[in-house]
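task queued by scheduler; priority normal; single chain, no ligands, no partner chains; default sampling; output format set to structure tokens
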Amino acid sequence: EDTAQLIAKSMELYQDTNGVFDISIYPLMKEWGFTTKKYKVPSDKTINHLLKNIDASKIEWNNKTNLVALPEEMEIDLGGIAKGYTSNRLTQIFKEYQLTGGVLSLGGNVQTFGKKEDGSRFTIGITDPSDGQSVLGTLEVDEKAVITSGSYQRYFEENGKRYHHIMDPRTGAPAESDLLSVTVICDRGEQGDALATSLFVMGKEKAIAYAKENDLSLILVDQNNEIWTSEGVDFRTAK
């Protein structure tokens, strides 16, 4: 049931992001070494061969029977949505057991439920993508998923160049984005997880346009370390 929900949501987000969120990306992630930790830069020939099978529109998915059929050589990767889905499910389970509030942190994926004992909201820190360690700033939330995707989180270096893990399914290579990190603040973890990655790939201009069209709350940090926040997001910088 969980896998079915993940695939169904992934297919919905594939359409919603015009193909930027594509779960058929697994062979590329494997070839670059992000699933095996045997990192390497694939040849253009290898990438072009793999790109022939990167197309989630070819996935046959039946919502009623929960049956999925993949073309030959296609493999799917739910890593871009699974953490957010997990945090969402955990909050549901905790509520079933009458827990009054808490924070779930799954490495870049934070989700809160309820409130603190004194009735106040939870304060969530956003990592500074320029160093990947210090706190860029904070915001106060309750009953929200706060999910960050950035090029600083997972990467390797080869011949003096850094290659991060956020793949562009259109090019078969790490996304050449003008952003350093994208933070999505929304109600559901799986949506925030997938969109944080997708909006990073899209870049700053398209991410802002998407946020405005879909009433989505974002915190963006670009390559110049400039911060953009959606209207109504009470983000307080630490510096």
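post-processing summary
- Helices lie at 2-16, 26-32, 44-51, 79-96, 189-202, 204-214.
- Residues 79-96 form the longest helix (18 residues).
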